[in-house]
Write a structure and sequence with these properties.
CATH topology of the largest domain in chain A: Rossmann fold
Radius of gyration of chain B: 21 Å
Oligomer: heterodimer
Helix content of chain A: 25-40%
Number of domains of chain A: 2
Radius of gyration of chain A: 21 Å
Largest interface: A-B, 92 and 54 residues
Distance between the termini of chain B: 29 Å
CATH superfamily of the largest domain in chain A: HypD, alpha/beta domain 2
CATH superfamily of the largest domain in chain B: PurM-like C-terminal domain
Order of helices and strands of chain A: HEHEHHEHEHEHEHEHHEHEHEEHHH
CATH topology of the largest domain in chain B: Phosphoribosyl-aminoimidazole Synthetase, Chain A, domain 2
Distance between the termini of chain A: 39 Å
Amino acid sequence: MKFIDEYRNPEKVKSLLREIEAITTHPWTLMEICGGQTHAFLHHGLDEMLPGEIELVHGPGCPVCVTPLEQIDKAIAIASRPEVIFTSYGDMLRVPGSSQDLFSVRAKGGDVRVVYSPLDAVQIAEVNPDKQVVFFAIGFETTAPANAMAVMQARQRGVHNFSVLISHVCVPPAMEAILGSKNNRVQAFLAAGHVCAVMGYHEYPQIAAKYKVPIVVTGFEPVDLLVGVLAAIKQLEAGKAEVENAYERTVSFNGNPSAQEMINTVFQPVDRKWRGIGSIPQSGLGLRPEFTEFDAEERFSVGEIVTQESPLCIAGEILQGMKKPPQCSAYGKECTPQSPLGAPMVSAEGACSAYYRYHRSEVTT
Amino acid sequence: MNNNFDFQGYTCPVPIQPKDTVMLGHGSGGKLSHDLINRLFLPELGKAAPRALDDSAVLTLNGQRLAFTTDSHVVSPLFFPGGDIGRLAICGTVNDLAMAGAKPYALTCGFVVEEGLSFEILQRVVQSMREAAAEAGVFIAAGDTKVVQKGGADKLFINTSGIGTIADGINISGANAKLGDVVIVSGSIGDHGIAVLSAREGLGFETALESDVAPLNYLVDAMLNAGEVHVLRDPTRGGLATSLVEISEQSNAAIEIDEQTLPFKPAVKAACEMLGFDPLFIANEGKLVAFVKESDADKVLDAMKKTKYGGDAAVIGRVIEAGKSQVRLKTAIGGTRLVDMLPGEMLPRIC
C-alpha cells in the first residue's frame, strides 16, 4: 500500500537495526509516549529485534487508559437516562467503571452508539431534536480539535440538545510529571507523532533542557519508530539532550495553527485526574466559560460523582514506565482483555493489552 | 511543577464487572462467544456432542456418517455489495457441512420476518437463496415462517440447517492438525467483513470491494480428491485469527504463519489501516483455511487453484510443534508475535 509499505520495508528495518546496534554501548531506557507506538512496536515484533541494551518503557499516551474512573461513572450515569443518546469512540465502551461499562448500559436498553467523529454526534442531535445527545470527548491533543469543532458547530447551528462529557488530557504536563517523579527511569522520550502533528514541538525544548533528556518526535510505522530510536540513542551516547524531529513528513515545529486555534477557542487548561496516576495540575482541557452550555456534566448534574479508585492493580506504575505488564501478578490471570482489571488491559492501545495480545505466552510468570 | 511527583501513591482500579446480561460481543464469534458456549450451552446441552466445537456435528446412522449443522443469519443491511442475507444463509450452512468433509444434501430454512417488510424484498432474498442452493447442488427440504410485530426483529432473520453425507476414509476435524501440516487459505482474507461494514450507514467510507460469500463444497471436493486434508474451517465471524487459535487449541499444536504470504486485497488493508482493525479478525464467507499433510500440500494447492473459488489459494504457514497450543505470526519486517482470538466486539480505535 502506497505511503505505508515504504515505512514497513524489511531491508530498511534491518539496516536501521544494524545501525542502532553499532552505536549502542550502554544500557538505555526509552519511553514511547503514545499507546499507538507501544502497539506498533509489539504488533510488528520490533521490541524483540532491538539490541538487549535498549529497554522500552511504555508511556501514558493511551486516551482510554488515562480517562479516570469517575468520568466513566459519569458517562454511565448519563447514558443510562432514557432521554439520552450517548455517543462515543468505540474503545470507550469496554472500559469498566466502578460497577459496569457502557456495553452493559447498551445491553440493558440504553441508547449507546459508536461514532467515528464527534461531528456525527452533532448530526444525530439534529435529527433527534426530542433527545439529548451526548458525546464522550476524551483523548489527547489529537482528538481535541475535532471535539472543539463539534462544539462550535453545535453552537453555530443552534443544536441545543447536544453536549459533551469532557475528559481531555495534554501530553507535556504528563511528561513533566514522569520526569519529575522520584522513581523516574526514563532517559529519553519518543514523543507522540500524532500529538505533535497538531501541537508542534515548541513546548519540548524547555522540558529537554530542564530535565536533560533527549526528546525525539517519532511516528508509528516500523521505519519511523527505528529512526526515532536511532536518533534518541545517538543523543544519549553523545551525552546530548535536544529536541529532534524524526517524523518530518507529518510534523512541523509549530504544528497545525488552525487546529490549535480551534482548541484554544473552545477549551482552556484545567487540572485533570489521570486514571492510575492521579491529579496533575493544568494537565487537561475543559470548556471555556462561554461554552459551558454544552457541558454534559452541568446539564445532567453529574459533577458531584466522585469515585475512589481501589488500590489493587499496578496500572499507575505501568503508565509511567516503572513496571512492565508481566510484572503484575494479575496479568494474564485475573486480568485479561475480556475481564480487564485495569484500563491498560482494555484499550487496543493499552500496554497490558498489547502484551497480552502479542507476547502472552512468554510472560505469564 | 510536579518536581516531587510520586506515582507509587496512585493505583489503578479493579472494577467489578457484572456478568448478568448477554452483550453483543457474545455473538462476535470470538472469545466471549466461546465463553458463552463453554460455560452455558455445552454443560447444559452439549454432553452428547463430542465435536460440538467443529463447524458440523458428525453422526453415524445405520453405518452412514452424516454431517449435521445449523446457522442463523442476522446481517444488516440485508443487501450488501456481492451478496445478501439469502445467499449468506445458504452458503453459511453449505460451508459448515463442507468443513466436515461432507457432501451437502439438503437444507431447511426458518424465516423470522418483522411485520412491515415488503414482499419485494422478501422475494429478492428468496430468489437469491434459490440461486445459491442451485449453485451448491442442495435442495430445500423443509421450511418455517414466523412473523413478529414491528420492532420484534430487525427486518428479517434466517436460520438454515443442513445435512450431508461423509464418504469413507474422510476424517476432518479441528482436532486433527498434525506436526508438519501445511496451512493453506483459499483466497483473499477479510473481503466480506469490510464489504458489509462499508455498506452500513454512517461509516463515511465507500469501497468497490464485494463480499466473497460463496458455497465452497466443490472446492472441498477437489481438495479431498487431491490429497490428505486434516482440518478444514471457514473463518467467518472472528476471522482467520480466531479460526487458527481454535484449531491450535483443539489440536494442541503450535502454528506459525507468515505475514508476507497472507493474501489481502489492498482495499481491505486500507480500510483496516484507517479504522484500526486487524484484518485477521475480519469475517469471511467464501474462504476456508485447510491443514494439509505436508507431502500432499502442492497437489492440494494445485487442485484448489483450478476451482472457481480457490484461484488465489496460498500457503500461509505450518504446524511447527505438537503438544503446545499457540499461534505465532512472522511479521513482514522479520519479528514475531502472538496471534489471539478476537476478544469481544470489534471496536474502531480512537485516534
